[in-house]
């Protein structure tokens, strides 16, 4: 396992890894457009109310952007796996099978949403049968992951543990979210809500494991320090993350009248959240020599911005996990600030770091040529995201005040208009920033490679 | 080796925890009403079919364009007639789904049932 030598090597799966990359970026682009339509529906009430109502835009947005996260992580894995073990992926056709299953399932989901066929479950709002096909698509992916790597967990670095955990828990949590099909859950609204919070809360943990694993792999490659992610400290943080994945979902359910001790467990565990990766990136940055920082400046900057968002979201997450405060913040846009702050600020930044690391390896010259464009995209996205995030917090606070004053819903909506406007307009700028990154990726991929 | 043991112990704890969470502490609200009433079940089905959760929240779960519905039924400012009005005609942001009278009754029965389970909300409101 001395991957630095392999820089110029190529593998049969690279082509399909690039296809996954383009697919992932298309999800992001479409998802962002639907997010913006959703934003305008906040500030222009009748906007597309009957045909593409919020009932469709929100599920489409959430499905597409979450699928961007999973697919970008998978694209990275298909590219990195052969380079870790120094041999091609185990089942090349499986990768293609995964690609076509994934593509057809998303097309079916998008069509269902437009036609108004819903399953009506939070985040997984498509008809339930489709869930089975999503899982099916993950089977060749899991086979390729485990059979290509054949991980030896006694000596494996922590990112291999993270990836394995992410895959295992995706299967567990997606299946768990369908427990509502059983009467025991469906006939009791408290259990029904608990299933959704618990399964989805852990599913978030599962994609975080995939994304963090990818970020750690990229950090190792950039620094060349193979000890970094084999240290006891790295494993301590991994297990802390795993504990969070398993038990912290309860912080979403403080208000649900389930057993009270669930809340205590969740609260204590939430306190440790995110500290994990923040600490790791911090240490890694400190240890990195200037020359490496410079050569890998795009992934480096993205990882650094990811770190800033980790700290911002950590503060917010800890604050809203305090049960006395959660009573007020629960069910307001502060939760959306937490969700989008983490999925854009952390996951999307880390994934773009991996994307640019990948394409820089493929085509260093073209990447170098686009450095300024990418830098502009990164800055625009992050500044706009800060405004976006603050506007969501502001809408949340407006709702809390309005609830305290017992105001009816339309008064609340009227009073929040300026926050919603700020939210939507800054969202458009987030889109512009991310669009610059998307366009740069596509330009770099399409640029011809200079013969070496 | 210890890593594998730590992983397995956590995993087993997680499995046990999941079983306990899904069975203990929720019995009291395991409303027999649900079993007895066809209307509540239909209401829930409609609630999912029309994806009400994308705009409304139950126990804070869902989208935020529309109001939280957990205690809408017993809310002195809202209540049954108020809710029915929106289900019949939609609102400035809520679409009109052209429900039949029976469908509206079923949805109201479901939301009434949800309201009876919302003990934590109500004790908080009294405080
Ligand atoms: C990479 C970029 C993005 C990601 C990963 C992302 C992710 C998410 C997630 C996970 C949610 C669900 C939040 C919840 O728990 O309720 C959400 C909701 C939403 N997002 Fe985004 N988002 C992104 C960009 C945007 C942009 C640019 C806009 C434009 C304004 C936007 C508008 C919305 C809206 C309107 C909602 C629904 C909020 C509600 O429930 O009322 N998103 N997004």
Q: What are the defining features of this structure?
A:
heterodimer; A: 452 residues; mainly alpha; 0% strand; B: 127 residues; Cytochrome Bc1 Complex, Chain D, domain 2; 2 strands; 59% helix; 3% strand; binds protoporphyrin IX containing FE
Write up this protein.
The complex is a heterodimer of chains A (452) and B (127). Chain A has 18 helices and no strands. Chain A has helices at 14-43, 54-85, 92-115, 129-149, 158-177, 183-186, 189-223, 232-247, 260-270, 275-287, 290-295, 297-321, 323-329, 333-362, 364-369, 371-404, 409-415, 417-446. In chain A, α7 (189-223) packs antiparallel against α8. The longest helix of chain A has 35 residues, at 189-223. The two termini of chain A are 25 Å apart. Chain B is mostly helical and 127 residues long. Chain B has a two-stranded antiparallel sheet. Chain B has one domain (30-126): Cytochrome Bc1 Complex, Chain D, domain 2, CATH 1.10.760. The chains are: A mainly alpha (452), B mainly alpha (127). Protoporphyrin IX containing FE sits between chains A (28, 32, 35-36, 38-39, 58, 61-62, 65, 335-336, 339-340, 343-344, 348, 424, 427, 430-431) and B (63-65).
